Structure formats: structure tokens, C-alpha cells
């Protein structure tokens, strides 16, 4: 599959594996809002480059807060966050836009631009990166087809259902094949069958080298896929083993490309 257009050239200084993905390291990170209590309390963890994790925890446990540190919307109150081979928590403000372009984000509330079409929303990261219009017209409809939105290329977000908007948001997050994908409840507005198919899209992205972290309340999904869980509780984090009882390659993809039937959505 080729849902990006030549974006990996000229990148340097990362903790990388052979695929060009990134490692994540939190050291003694705390986060609080204003004068409130610590939402994250002195947490430390390391995620391998090219890994795939679920982020779990009850409502209010701090999942969105942790993701906001990863997509560089906030800095920790204490501690350091290492990504792309550097301490991003102390990176100068003018370094942040370039770092953010390497991160795909699916926001819980989608954050689509209502005045732009589906196609133009998804094309945004490519346009920012200077990808040619010809490539955009080739790649964006292809990806929107994979997520089942071929018939909605020119629709604007206010005319779409919640599940359709969610798939536009997912397409926008993955189109540029980011080094890191963080997704906040990315299957919260779709049915189980579509959720499973979207997981296949994330897994395909991961296979191509992207480090993936998916926050979810959907225990059925967590039980279905064999990924470790970064679990938040009481401001603390633990890395827990997969809930699914099968190993990657055991048969989920038997019969070919898992993305092949996404067009039927
Ligand atoms: N902007 C903010 N200002 C003040 N408090 C906040 C802010 N954002 C989150 N919080 C608080 O931080 C805590 C963690 O919230 P967060 O949204 O990170 O949890 P969550 O695990 O993502 O929850 P959910 O599963 O319901 O989305 C909550 O107590 C919440 O009220």
C-alpha cells in the first residue's frame, strides 16, 4: 500500500529502527492542570520503536492528557519526554511544528475543518509538506476508498455522520505515514466490524514502521488484538501483557492483504 507520498527524505537524528520509526521514553513525568492534583504522577516507561500499544484506563484516568504530551500540545509539569532521539519536553517552541509534522493524531473530537471537503481535510498534511497536487489527487482518494468514503470525497464534515467524520480524521492522521501515530478513541463512533477494519489500517501503518499508541475503552477490541497495554490508574502507568490469546501472524491476516476489503465499508 502507498498512502503517503515521498515524505521520509532528509530526516535525521532519531532513535530509529531499520524502518525509520521512533522510540518513546518518559522519565519521571508528572502533569497537572493549574493548581489541580497531579493527573500523571511521576510516570516512567519506554516504548520500542515500531511498537504497537493500546492505552487503557477508566474515564478520567489521564489517557488524553498523556497523549497530549506525545503530540506536543503540552509539556510535563515535571520530568522529560524523549522522542525522535531528543528531549521534546524541553524543545524550543520554534522546533515544535517540525516535530509535530512527524506525528499523526486522531483527536477524540476529530477536529476537522468544517469548511473544507473530506478530500481537502485529508490532503492538509500533504499540502503542508509540499507534496504535488498530482500525488495528492492520486493518494488521498485511494486512502479515502480504503476507509469506505469514496462517495464522500467532496462532502464537508457537517454533512457526515460521526463514524464518517472519525474515518476522515483517521485518514488525515495516517496519510503522511507519520513516525508516530497517537489516536484517542479512534473507533468510538463506528460499529465493531468497522473498528476491526480500522485496526487493520493502523496495523498496516505499524508494519511500515510507525510507532502506534491507541487509547481506547473498547475492551472487545483490546481482547481481539495481541498488543501490550499501557494502563493508567491512579496517576500511575503500567505496561501489561496483551489480552488477546493469539500471536501476530497467527491467522488474522490469513488470505491476503487485510486492507483489501476496506473498500466495501
Ligand atoms: N484542560 C484541563 N483542565 C483541567 N483539568 C483537566 C483538563 N483536561 C483534563 N483534565 C482533568 O484531568 C483528568 C484526566 O483527564 P483525561 O481527559 O486525560 O482522562 P481520559 O482518561 O482521557 O478520560 P476519558 O476516557 O473520559 O476521555 C481528569 O480529572 C480531567 O478532569
Automatic annotation (TrEMBL):
InterPro entries from the UniProt entry: AAA+_ATPase, ABC_transporter-like_ATP-bd, ABC_transporter-like_CS, ABC_transpr_LolD-like, Cell_div_FtsE, MacB-like_ATP-bd, P-loop_NTPase
Keywords in alphabetical order: ATP-binding, Cell cycle, Cell division, Cell membrane, Membrane, Nucleotide-binding, Transport
PROSITE patterns, A to Z: ABC_TRANSPORTER_1, ABC_TRANSPORTER_2
Parts of the chain that traverse the membrane: none
SUPFAM superfamilies named in the record: P-loop containing nucleoside triphosphate hydrolases
Pfam families per record: ABC_tran
Keyword flag Transport: yes
Biological process (GO), any one: cell division
Location(s) in or outside the cell: Cell inner membrane; Cell membrane
A single Gene Ontology CC term: plasma membrane
GO molecular function: ATP binding; ATP hydrolysis activity; transmembrane transporter activity
Main location: membrane
Membrane-related topology note: Peripheral membrane protein
Function: Part of the ABC transporter FtsEX involved in cellular division. Important for assembly or stability of the septal ring.
Family: Belongs to the ABC transporter superfamily.
Official protein name in the record: Cell division ATP-binding protein FtsE
Source organism: Novispirillum itersonii
